[in-house]
Amino acid sequence: MPTTLTLKGIPDDLYIRLKQTAEVHRRSLNNEAISVLETMLLPRKATASDRIARARALRASLGTHTFSTKDIDAFKRQGRR
Description:
Layout: H1 12-24, H2 29-41, H3 48-61, H4 69-79
Helix pairs in contact: 1-2
């Protein structure tokens, strides 16, 4: 069941900015505030492009060293202990 939240003392510049973004997104002020809170507070699922970027960054951090199949199998076995 949704809960009601009342905010007091919102700075004018913050209110104006929230109102502007609500208009841009064609949302009510309330729905925009909920959207902003969800974006900042709830975990989001990583997109495919996010995962690819993280994999590429990890690969780049490994340097130019190449691993043989034997090395990879040894690493796998180490992780199972």
